[in-house]
Each structure stands twice: as structure tokens, then as C-alpha cells.
């Protein structure tokens, strides 16, 4: 084969390769709008991150049913349990600073902390607080904190009355109470509230300027979505609930643009510009599977998933041969989803103000498009 023909073939292969990386954002945009209408959600916002940049950010529907104002990339929504990764990251920073260790016993910092068994109470570590292996059942004891008006310490003092559902470190029970406890450990170690640590250690450095954790600041910020209940196939506006006291489990209110910055930071392995806020050992600890889930290896699945589990503040799985780091969040009248494929520097966040959003469908459509998978 002569050189001109060879050169042309090489040139053509580069063009084909480059084109395969292009994603039709207009097609995705049209799909997002259709999905929001088809699923009957009042409104939602979608943000996509690729290679360290926010490449897509847009809102759909309305901020509140019956009113014309529309959401956008800066619209605020409660992200609920997507706050947990922020809490585990603050703990990691304190470990980096030598102020605590992952294997420190919780009672070292909170002597009043007790669970259903004296042995478990003594052996529960900081790391255990963050991976849902305490033995308590999923959502066990949520009635203690939800709309209770109790302080974090008062909530924690009541945990001992809850029965266990499985043995310590021998199962998975999603526990908001353990994250309230982690927030109180942060407060004890630093002398500052969880929210103050969040602001100083993450929000300010990452310039997440619209993200808040205090409900009274919502009106000050403006451009916020209203939560909705879904009753008899209709969306009804409801009030925000104040979760600041229990913020460590889910108190953050943010936008897709700000969460985009958070995803970029995480996929840059804890480095923000010239500052390393989370070291490699910290990222590896947060993204290590501390609590594995059973996956049926005898059957295939659409995501080609072979492992699933929980790290520290993050859900972990493989997705078509790549690590998938994600979390969801549920708040009164709002649902959130954050998903990253770190190997591809790809992330997608969907924030919605209704209880029946197509968050998973939108997330998977983005991943399929950018990874060149079938729709």
C-alpha cells in the first residue's frame, strides 16, 4: 500500500474515532423534555459533566405547579441523601489532619452513644457509621428525627432502644441515624457544626456559591423549586422541611451547576486547582466497597453489573466494565440522583421537585449516549 493511501486511511480512522465521541446533546435535550412531560413531574434540572467541564445544564417544566416560572441549571433543590458523600468527605479530611482515625471507636468522641448491644456499642467505629452495617434495619428509627424538633444529641441518645435486624457488620441497613451520629462526631472534634465544616471545607473552596444547608437562606438565594406531593395523579405544592439539625444525613440544598463542580472535584481525585482537599488514600477509602450486596451471577443484566455495594457515602457498582459511583436522595416532594463514571470523567446529576421523576431513565440515557451503548 502506498503512503498517500495509508495516510488517508489513518486520517479517516481518526475522524471516525472523533465522531464516535460526539454526543447529540440536542437529541438528549429533546428526550429530557419529553421524559419530564411523560412522567408528569412538575420540574427537573439536568447537569452533565465531561472531562472536567459542565457540558450541559438545563431545566424543564416549572418551579411550582400552576405557575409559569421555569427551572434552569442554577435552580435550587433539596438533594437529601446525596449530602451523605459530603459528610464522609469531611470525615476523611479530619482523618488527613490527624484529628481522628477511621477505626476510632465512636464512644471515644460520643460517650453517650449506645446501640442495641453493649459489645456493638463499644466496637462501632467511625468507618462503621458511614457504610450502613450497624445491624439496624433500613430507615430504622427515622421516626426519632423526622419532624421531631430534637437535637442531634437527643436523637442519638434514643438509638439504643431500637432492635437490630441483623448482626453487626453482617448485612446492610440504610441508616440515617448513623449519619446524624457522624455529624455530631464532626462537631465534637472540630468545635464547629456540620454546616460550618461543610461551608469552610467544601462549598467555599469549590465555589459552590448557591449551595446552602440552612432553610432561611432559601429566599435570600432565590430561584428555587417548590417540592410537590403526588396524590391521585396530581402534583400538589408542599412546604420545605427544615433538616439543618440533621444536615449530615441529607440537609444540602443545591443546583445541578454546583453539583457539577462537586462531581468534577471528585473525579479529579480530590484536587481543586492547586489544592488537594482529599488525598488519594481518602478517595480510595471512600470508594472502597465496605458493604457488598449480593449480585446474581447466574443471570445477565442490562448494566452488565457483577458487583454492587456501599462505600462511605457512595453506592458502588460496575457498569459495562467501568466503575460507577452514585447516590440518590429522597426529600419531602423532591428526588435527586448523582452518578459518575470516573474512568470516563463523566457525570450526570438530575434534581427534581416531584415524587415520580424519571431520574434513572435520564441518567441511563446520558451514560448510554456518552459511552456509545445502545439506548
Radius of gyration: 22 Å
SSE-based structural type: alpha+beta
Low-confidence stretches: 1-20
H and E string: HHEEEHHHHHHHHEEHEHEEHEEEEEEH
Please work out how many helical segments DSSP would assign.
Answer: 14
Total count of domains: 1
CATH class: Alpha Beta
CATH superfamily: DD-peptidase/beta-lactamase superfamily
Q: Per DSSP, what share of the residues sits in E-state strands of 2 or more residues?
A: 15-25%
Report how far the terminal alpha carbons are from each other. Answer: 39 Å
**Oligomeric state, counting identical vs distinct chains:** single chain
CATH topology: Beta-lactamase
Summarize the structure.
The chain is α+β, with helices and mostly antiparallel strands.
Structural features:
375 residues, single chain, 14 helices, 14 strands, alpha+beta, eight-stranded antiparallel beta sheet, Beta-lactamase
